[in-house]
């Protein structure tokens, strides 16, 4: 294993688990040392095969451990021939290089795309090509997945948004306001998109403004239709997610770009049953282990 490289220095690790490997990196892109979990398929060590990779991005106020601790990612992928990479994305990092930060660098986009992706391909037996990579996520991570898939078209052949926003400007830019307001603590008063907004940055990140870049990409979308009325946050959040995903789907359809969409009961939550359906589609789309 190349311990250091691509601007990353390993400052912590735990490789004792047969499948789940943990790394903590020092990087100039982030002002603290982010963690990453790498979940290997059963039999990886002795197989000699190269595997497809899913980059799985957590939601707001979560971290790289969430899919393991809260959603049984080991069980959900047991027996499946795929590597799952689960990186820190900041509690409210929005998978972005923010317009401003007063607590040091918080360039999550750079860390993931320019550093971590290259480090993973150099250190694990992966298919280091677009046809071998997928990106998906929940909530803020679902937005990050949609953003990365379009902005870095040559990197991912499949994208999945589980209750992830797909439209930044609708409803007077509600999602941009969410991103700016929620990120102020992490950024020491800074913002992801600036105030006033850095309009070109918003447009570059906005899935509905980059429809053509989803061509030839598998697109999987999930949103809830019936958030519990007693849960104000879930109601408002998922209502906006659902509206944005519908707008996104309409634009994809008008452009003749295929997608798979699910509207299911419930609010703003990660649904393991939907992830299982998604994973089957990812495996069918990506290069097989070989």
TrEMBL record:
Gene3D superfamilies named in the record: alpha/beta hydrolase
Pfam families associated with the record: Esterase
Origin superkingdom: Bacteria
GO molecular function, one term: acyltransferase activity, transferring groups other than amino-acyl groups
Leader sequence segment: none
Coiled-coil region: none
The protein's name: Esterase family protein
Organism for this UniProt entry: Gordonia rhizosphera NBRC 16068
Highest classification ranks of the organism: Bacteria, Bacillati, Actinomycetota, Actinomycetes, Mycobacteriales
């Amino acid at each position: 294993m190349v311990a250091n490289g691509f601007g990353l220095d390993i400052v912590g690790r735990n490789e004792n688990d047969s499948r789940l490997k943990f790394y903590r990196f020092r990087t100039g892109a982030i002002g603290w040392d982010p963690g990453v979990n790498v979940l290997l398929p059963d039999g990886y060590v002795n197989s000699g095969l190269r595997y497809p990779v899913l980059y799985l991005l957590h939601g707001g106020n979560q971290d790289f451990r969430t899919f393991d601790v809260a959603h049984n990612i080991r069980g959900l992928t047991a027996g499946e021939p795929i590597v799952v990479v689960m990186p820190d994305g900041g509690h409210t990092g929005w998978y972005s290089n923010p317009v401003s930060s007063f607590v040091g660098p918080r360039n999550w986009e750079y860390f993931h795309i320019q550093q971590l992706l290259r480090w993973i391909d150099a250190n694990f037996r992966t298919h280091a090509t677009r046809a071998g990579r997928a990106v998906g996520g929940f909530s803020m991570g679902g937005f990050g997945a949609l953003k990365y898939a379009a902005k870095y078209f040559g990197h991912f052949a499949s994208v999945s948004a589980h209750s992830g926003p797909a439209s930044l400007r609708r409803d007077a830019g509600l999602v941009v306001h969410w991103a700016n307001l929620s990120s102020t603590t992490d950024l020491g008063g800074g913002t992801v998109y600036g105030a006033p907004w850095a309009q070109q940055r918003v447009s570059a990140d906005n899935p509905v403004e980059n429809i053509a870049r989803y061509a030839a990409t598998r697109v999987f979308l999930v949103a809830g239709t019936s958030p519990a009325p007693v849960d104000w946050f879930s109601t408002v959040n998922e209502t906006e997610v659902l509206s944005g995903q519908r707008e996104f789907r309409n634009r994809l359809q008008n452009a003749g770009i295929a997608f798979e969409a699910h509207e299911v009961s419930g609010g703003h939550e990660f649904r393991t049953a939907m992830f299982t359906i998604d994973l089957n589609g990812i495996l069918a789309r990506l290069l097989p282990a070989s």
